[in-house]
Every structure is written in structure tokens, then in C-alpha cells.
Amino acid sequence: MNKLGKLALAGIVVLGGTLTYTAPTLAAEVGSTTSKGDITFKQDDGTTPTTPTDPTDPGKPVTPTDPDKPTPTTGPLRIDYISNVHFGEQVISGSDTTYKAKYDEVLTSDGVTKKYVPSYVQVTDNRGSNAGWKLQVSNDQFVAGANELTGAVLSFKDARLNSTNTARPANFAAVTLSGNSVNQDVINAPEDTGMGVWTNTFGTVTGQDADSENDSVTLAIPGETKKVASSKYVSTLTWTLTDTPD
Is the pLDDT score of 9 beyond 80? Predict the structure, then answer.
């Protein structure tokens, strides 16, 4: 046998050695049974409001510092928080003037660090029905005693929704309130949207100090409107949450 034949034969022997195989012994089944997993739900009674969340960083709790912050509603579908709108002290003007609101001051989760965020409203839907909801707002005119800021117009624009959830409702880019007006749509959450916690901000933050102003929340006052010095004019905004979306 020549050298090439010997090499080929040697390769077959080695290959044959590597293919040696022993079949495993199969386990015999001797029986089976079943177990269960279960969960029971109860309705959120809504007596404890959801902690206000950072509208610019959803899911992170904050503590608003406004001592006169609005009272939250109750129930599994509820309004957790609404910013008051402060325009501060302004010099009287006889010309048409538009004033910008202050940002909303909150404390971050450490309870110490101040942060300024746009004016916002927070809604929680823990009903579990996925039926949807609608948020509307109306107001009366700014008054100080018997004195009214005739013709004053409060505007919210550049609305932005935020949540850790993804089933997004629809918001309205601008809301205009001229006093004694009918309900204006703010958010509409059709069926299968708006579950969980949602914030709706107006504008973005351009400064982190107490004097920073939000040009997305404004109060326009005609120059000819009578203005009484050293008087605080107040408007009451009524926010209405219903379970009847469009």
C-alpha cells in the first residue's frame, strides 16, 4: 500500500473512533399534576390622592411648595394636582399689556432641593375599565372686591402630556379663558387611553429661579381697564373631570 493509502486509512480509523455513540437512558414518566396562580382585584377607593409627579420627569415624586395649592378630588378617576397661576406684583399700565406667569415651585424627592416646572395639571385613572375621560376648565373674571379686570384674558398654550404609560390621550394645544366662559377642553382621553397617571404641562422651563417667567401662560389686560393699586385680583378656575370622552 502506498503512503497516500495508508494516510487515508488512518483518517478513517480516527474518524470512526470519534463517531462512537452511546444512547442515553430515557426517564420514564410516573405521573403529573397541576397547580394554580390567582389574583383578586378590588377597586381603588380614591381616598388617598396620587402624589404629584414631576411633569418634566414622569414617575419621580415632587412636593409643591404653594401653601394655597388646590384640593385634589377623590375616587379612582381623580385630579391629583393643579398649579395655581401667579403673575406677581406688576406696575399699572395704561397700555394693552400681556403678563407672564411664574413657574411652579416644587421640592424634589429629597424634600430640600427646589425645582421650577411649568404650570400643570395631573390626572390619575385607576378604574381599570379603560373607559376614557375628559378634562375641561372654565373661570370667572379677575376681581378685587367689587372691582373687575374687564376684558382680561387668561391663556394656556404649548400643552404637553407626559406619563410612564404609553396609551396617550389627546390634549388641546391652547386654552383661552375670558371670564365667565363655558368649559374649555383641556384633555380628551378616548376609550383605551389615559390609564394611570398623566400630567399636562403648559410650556417649558427656561429658567430655574423664582423670577423666571413662563411665556406659555399669560394674562392679557386692556390698557383702558380700570386697575386699583395695592389690590390683589383673583380669578377662580374650575377644572371638571368627567368619564364621558368624545
Answer: no
